[in-house]
Amino acid sequence: MGDIRQSLLPRDVLSAAKELLYHLDIYICNLVQSGRQPPQVDSKTLELVEEFILHAPKDRNTSARRMSALQELQLLEIMCSCFQEQSRDTVRQLMFSALFNLQGNQADESRMALLGKLVSMAIAVGRVPILECAANWLQRTHRVYCVRLAQVLVDDYCSMVPGSVPTLQNIHSASPRFCCQFITAVTTLYDLTSEELTPPLELLQMIVSWIQDDPRLVLITFLNTPLSGSQPISSLDVTPLGGLVRWCIKAPLAYRKDKKQALTNGSSESEPEAGPLFSALHLSVLQVFMLLPNILNEKGLYGRLALLQMESLAALTSDLSRLLDQADKHTHTSSADTHVLPQLALDRLAQALQVAMASGALLCSREDLRAICSRLPHNNLLQLVLSGPVMYYNNIHTPPLAFSPHAAHSPIASHPTLPTHPTLPTHPTLPTHPTLPTHTPHTPLAAHPSSHPQYSTQPFMTGMPFPFRPTH
User: Fold this and answer.
1) Per-domain boundaries in the chain
2) Taking a C-beta distance cutoff of 8 angstroms, is the pair 282, 204 a contact?
3) How far apart, in whole angstroms, are the C-alpha atoms of residue 283 and residue 472?
4) For residue 256, what pLDDT band results from cuts at 50, 70 and 90?
5) How many CA atoms lie within 13 A of 213 on its CB side?
6) Where is the composition biased (Low complexity) (predicted)?
7) pTM for the whole structure
């Protein structure tokens, strides 16, 4: 395509960009039809994109061409139509890559600016092909730039234009893949380390409603991605589970809502409270974990793939320890929150760890957990999780523990012949326990700790229904 440059130079900026998009579409269609594997856009074509669409100067002696705001809007409309009218997904993806794949040069800033505006417009006018391309872009791009795109969308739909949140919310049904990647990006962006990095209530409410409507939404990228073990360490996580868990656990201590600002905005009556939203999100995340055992088994990944990484959990417990220390320094205040909220955060951590281990999302030994939680204050539920065996619930079908690479560290693994305890009606002919007198009726295991010395050093939790009811 290098030979068309001379024909583009005399044109005005909008006409040249439109003409180049037309030729780029034809060029990529021919590239795909040629059967070359993998199809790859040549460097000369990328240089034309930078010069006539991103308006990066060809050399230092050439001044950059600029579009007016109206021309830029017209270009975005042309691009939306171009992607919408192209029926072949392979062509669309290659064209999107040619336009927005980061090259590590000065044109990248122009790429990011144009990308943010294009995706924002695609959300507004419902251009699903662009959202699907953007989902792939988010999956393969460095997380720093993914977070920048997420920030642009949050600003556009949750901050700058009042009442525009429902427009963003509609992408749940339009493009679930983009929705999943967007959640992952915003949970990476908002880590609750400061007021500025706390998710807006409108965004939080929207994400809670998405996951409540469809818990599998946060697993879409994982379900549709061939996992080769070569996921770039700089990319977004394959699911937003880690970020959502971080939100729920840190929220009681880190989330601060400026009520005076809400009053001046006149929105205090209509805005939801943050506490119930995070509590609902916590329950939804636990329900997502419930889906994982069967999914991991179907993919042959149970015990081999951890969707929650120990490194991120270690960072989370370190942040939580710091927040708890800060809360402890303010215990001289009479507020009951200084006592209730720390325990709420620890309870949620315990619940998340327990359910993640039971579902196969977290692969680690008890020793590993005790090490990363060693700086945390005492919490009854957390202590049970750190000292007791993993609970496998009746409605979760799990493979033998030997399938897990960490089976040797599991307290249950040393008792492979431990019989199950099905629910039995009280009956005079009920089988008796071999270690109890024959006239003693069978009772739950927890009622006879002295009869089972092998469990004397570890509290064994029994009869706890699932899902957990999160602590409010």
Assistant:
1) 245-256+273-292+308-328+339-414+458-472
2) no
3) 10
4) low
5) 13
6) 415-445
7) 0.79
